[in-house]
Specification:
By secondary structure, this protein is an alpha+beta fold. It is built from twelve helices and 16 strands. It folds into two domains: 230 residues, no CATH class; 104 residues, Chitinase A, domain 3, CATH 3.10.50. It has a four-stranded antiparallel sheet. A three-stranded antiparallel sheet has the order 2-14-16. It has a three-stranded antiparallel sheet with strand order 4-3-13. β3 and β4 form a beta hairpin. α1 crosses α5 and α2 crosses α5. The longest helix has 29 residues. 30% of the residues are buried.
Length: 359
């Protein structure tokens, strides 16, 4: 079976606007040292500017012009938070690169060719002044693309070691149908308001009558339709919390085709019928979710262990010079470029030159 994987491509055009005086950054300085491997200021700056462009494209409209100075957490600006993530990303990529041999991971000739072509295309498409501001020379772009490629392949190799056996018992999802006799109504202005206490009492009695009718063999959907109630199906287990924990607990205690009593909550009265003790589709989906969580945890735990066992040093003076408030960066990029371990012809290896502008 052909093995395929993807990485972000930087094959497009960058538009850079200077907002304030830029600090002088010596690109050959060391920004981070990871177990003897140096990450240059140029690599750090380019990866940071690439990340900056993504955030400004997707988050700028929501956070406004002052997004980078806005507070992301207690005592930390959005810029500080994202730069911290960028440093950790770069450190992780180098750690993964250092452990490639342990997983028999390497970049094929075809993959290396795509990296080279992508870096060349970026070099051809961008003006010298803009490339200098973002440290976007061909060698630096190629290095960043290589680190990103290694990260993707190493992630897959590490995650391949995760346990993929999940039993029905571990993933079991039950299924219910339920209705809500809501304590909310809509006033003449279209606003949601609570009904009166008298109306709540009458609604509770209606819910009790409905539950009794179902317990006596009535058709759940038909009786709900007569009362203009919406029947909602729900796959669940004991850890499910929505729409209400009281409802989940009551339904979880039923035998198949059992019906709950009236479950009163702040939002209204629920009545539910357990339609399946093991819903096949939902259980299989839960298995996939469990496997995905195991893979993610294995990858994270592996990287964390390497990080703990490796001496990592940061050159703070370099990172201070990388400021998101001195430049704005807009990019035309191709988000994903496919790779394969198979050797390809030149026209197959070429990166698609069509780009979509991220605004």
């Amino acid at each position: 079976m052909k093995k395929r994987w993807f990485m972000s491509a930087l094959a497009g055009v960058m538009t850079v606007s200077v907002l304030a005086g830029c600090s002088s950054l010596k690109e050959d300085e060391t920004a981070i040292t990871v177990g003897g491997t140096e990450i240059t200021a140029g690599v750090a700056n380019f990866y940071a500017r690439y990340t900056q462009a993504q955030y400004e494209s997707y988050m700028g409209a929501y956070l406004g012009e002052d997004m980078w100075s806005s507070e992301a957490g207690e005592g930390e600006s959005y810029e500080e938070s994202i730069k911290s993530n960028i440093k950790e990303d770069l450190e992780t990529m180098v750690l993964l690169e250092q452990h490639m041999d342990e997983y028999d991971v390497f970049l094929s000739n075809a993959e290396q060719s795509v990296i080279t072509k992508t870096a060349q295309e970026f070099d051809d498409n961008n003006a010298l002044d803009e490339k200098e501001l973002i440290s976007g020379d061909k060698e630096t772009v190629e290095r960043v693309l290589t680190l990103m490629a290694v990260q993707q392949k190493m992630r897959e190799a590490i995650q391949a070691g995760a346990d993929t056996e999940v039993s029905d018992e571990e993933a079991a999802q039950k299924k219910m149908d339920y209705v809500l006799f809501s304590y909310k109504t809509t006033d003449e202005d279209g606003k949601s308001v609570d009904i009166s206490d008298e109306e709540k009492e009458a609604l509770k009695n209606s819910a009790a009558e409905f539950a009794e009718s179902i317990k006596n063999g009535g058709d759940f959907a038909a009786l709900a339709g007569e009362r203009a109630l919406e029947v909602k199906p729900l796959a669940f287990d004991s850890e499910t919390q929505a729409p209400d924990e009281k409802l989940i607990d009551a339904a979880d205690a039923l035998e198949e085709n059992g019906v709950t009593d009236v479950i009163e909550t702040e939002s209204g009265c629920y009545v539910a019928k357990l339609t399946s003790l093991l819903d096949r589709e939902a259980t299989d989906a839960k298995k996939e979710s469990i496997i995905s969580e195991r893979k993610s945890k294995l990858y994270t735990d592996t990287c964390d262990k390497w990080r703990k066992d490796t001496k990592i040093e940061e050159n703070k003076s370099v990172w201070k010079k990388i400021k998101f408030t001195d430049l704005t960066v807009t990019m035309k990029i191709k988000e994903e470029v496919p790779y394969t371990d198979e050797v390809k012809t030149d026209d197959q290896v070429d990166v698609d030159k069509t780009t979509a502008e991220e605004e």
